[in-house]
Amino acid sequence: MGAGAIHCAEDARRLAKRRLPWMVFDYIDGSAGRETGAARNRAALDAVTLKPRILKDVSQRSLATEVFGAPMDRPFGIAPMGMCNLSGPGADLMLARLAARHHVPHGVSTVASTPMEKIIETAQGHAWFQLYFSGDGVGTFKLVERAKAAGYKTLVLTVDVPEVGRRPRELRHGFKMPFRIGPRQFIDFALHPRWSLTSLFSGKPQMANFEMDGFEFDRTETRANVTWDTLARLRDAWPGKLVVKGVLDVEDAQKLANSGVDAIQVSSHGARQLESAPAPIEMLAKIRAELGPDFPLFYDSGIRSGEDVLKALTLGADFTFVGRVLQFAIAAAGERGLERMWDILSDELSSAMAQTGASSITAIHEPNHT
Q1: Which of 17, 39, 98, 306 could form a disulfide with 349 if both were Cys (CB 3.0 to 4.6 A apart)?
Q2: Three-state DSSP class for 342?
Q3: Pairing between β-strand 70-72 and β-strand 65-67 as defined by DSSP bridges
Q4: FMN hydroxy acid dehydrogenase domain spans which residues (predicted)?
Q5: Is the pLDDT reported for residue 75 higher than 90?
Q6: 369 in catalytic set
């Protein structure tokens, strides 16, 4: 079965679960603790309803929008995800090519398995660099300077990982970054020969952005010493747009808006960090109400369909980001699977817009639409 077997996000996930080693699938799919946070977010998204509107001419619909004054073909981009090449050889560059074709941002993770320079080149400039602050910050600011030199114009500081969340599915499989293969992993890979023959023979995924002199990545290194002073230092050091990702508190959002950041991204890290975190989709509307209509507000976490995108836009997001489902599509059917999943999300969004009487992304934000 190839890309034609994908008709929705769940199809891609089901095929990915069949084809990926258990360790890799659970790394991509897993959430914190007993995963009640992921279930809470899904239930909250499912509980959001959209208002059907009738007898409106929606025969011509546009999914185009703008972010920071730049035109985007879609109101959703690619969320930063670590070690994407585990889902399939060359996955990072598949995502970069997708971003270039559709003029949307490709979030390039600090822990990407392809160098940031290669990704932004392949994405034809449509890439934002996601930053984790860790340790004493010396290496972090080296990455900032490297991103600046590579041509990145937008930096996304992720603030919801003071310590790496405990994800039991990962722990049971002994998942490590940098990637290590022991007896347990060898057996897992042997039972999934299709993935092993294509992925491991392409070279073991590396933490590509850390291949710098005097800099060694430690996933367990604390990130807990980041403060508002750290943010101020980063604001001074970064001349481009600065987005803060991982915000779920109204007071924090207001303080960020007053601190000189250019946008806030409401996110629970896909429920991978704090199991008891509130559903981001519920906090989105509260943060929008606090910040007013004009401050740039983005959203990620749990998006599985075009209708989910529309829900987030309706509740106040200016732009959204999609993550796991794109990796599942790559695992299911490579680059054709990725394109198929992108088209499905686009078609689902367009159809939902027609059902709710919106012919443009701007119309979604009009007061009478909701």
Answers
A1: 306
A2: helix
A3: antiparallel
A4: 1-370
A5: yes
A6: no
Q: Is the pLDDT of residue 220 over 80?
A: no
Q: Tally Cβ neighbours within 10 Å of residue 237.
A: 13
Count Cβ atoms within 10 A of the Cβ of residue 25 and give its class: 0-12 exposed, 13-18 middle, 19 or more buried. buried
Main-chain phi, psi angles of 353, to 5 degrees = -60, -40
Q: Which residue has the tokens 């790559």?
A: 330
Angle at 279 between CA 235 and CA 261, to 5 degrees: 10
CATH architecture, domain defined by 3-369: Alpha-Beta Barrel (3.20)
| Domain range summary for the chain, segments of one domain joined by + | 3-369
Amino acid found at 370: T
Token duo for residue 61: 């619909």
**What is d(CA 53, CA 169) in angstroms, rounded to the nearest whole number?**
43
Place of tokens 């998942």: 175
Annotated catalytic residue: which of 102, 106, 192, 269?
A: 269
According to DSSP H, which parts of the chain are helical? 9-19, 22-29, 36-47, 91-102, 116-122, 138-150, 168-173, 183-190, 193-199, 228-237, 250-257, 280-291, 306-314, 324-355, 361-364
How does 298-337 read in b/e, with b if 16+ C-beta sit within 10 Å? Answer: bbbbbbbbbbbbbbbbbbbbbbbbbbbbbbbbbbbbbbbb
